[in-house]
Amino acid sequence: MNTLLAAGRAGRPITDFDILDLHGHIGRIGFALPDLSSAGLVRQMDQVGVKSIVVSHMHCMSPNVVHGNREVLAAMRAFPGRILGYISLWPYPDITEETAWCIEQGFTGIKVHNCNGFPINHTGYDGSYALANKHRLPILFHTWGSAEEFAQIRDLSARFPETSLLLAHAGCNNEEGYLNIARECPNVYLDTAFSRSPRGLFERLVAGASADKVVWGSDAYFYTQSSQVGKVLGAKISDEEKRMVLSGNAERILGRRR
After folding, report:
1. Quick one: which H or E segment has residue 97?
2. Around Cβ 8, how many Cβ atoms within 10 Å?
């Protein structure tokens, strides 16, 4: 049994390197979540061995993004270096000013959820994306693998080449579509957060896109970090590839900020 899998099966936190979670949430939503506190999230991180998590507020799915961003900022300040922040967007006329203000406060990237009815390449987001491009910040997109979404991602990849575009829930549908776009677009990465773990999916993402184009996200609170890290630790790939997915790729993406 490889070293990382043995540690996971023994219930020990991973301490060989810093795990970075690029997909998390805080805030209330209509799910039965037992602990909504930021302190509870950090306790879970300690149990698994996660150094930092980048979170957006649940309001990323509603017009109340400004309120959500303020709650994220409070969590960032309560747990500096442990909880990092995504700026949630809604195509308001003044959303670019909100994005600029949040970047000044130290937010790490941008989160866009398309359940709001707007395409992710809506022109109302362009000013915010331009700021992300200027500062070389990552942008996390909620995706479900549709051809329409992939066309929008290709458009954004070409127009904002200095951003890192993270596609959440990679492989949930249209697995080949995810692999194709990750291979075609140098700034597109596949995020592993997924409620199910179909046998072999993770290995196919790594084999098809390469280990340096896959990043780990847990989608906590929705899912426990232990279950989401377990599918990486148990994957039939090398420990070095697991380190890249759980840590190295995220370090490289976050380290590009200017």
Report:
1. helix 95-104
2. 21
Which helix (H) or strand (E) segment holds residue 39: the answer is helix 38-48
pTM of the model: 0.96
Query: Is 27 a domain residue?
Result: yes
- Is 12 inside a domain boundary? no
Q: Return the DSSP state at 256.
A: T
| Angle at CA of residue 190, ends 124 and 125, nearest 5° | 5
Number of structural domains (the chain) is 1
Q: Is residue 120 included in any domain, yes or no?
A: yes
pLDDT of 196-237, one tens digit each?
778 889 999 999 999 999 999 999 988 889 999 999 999 999
**What's the angle, vertex CA 73, arms to CA 156 and CA 33, rounded to 5?**
90
SS3 state of residue 171: coil
**CATH code of the domain containing 34:** 3.20.20.140
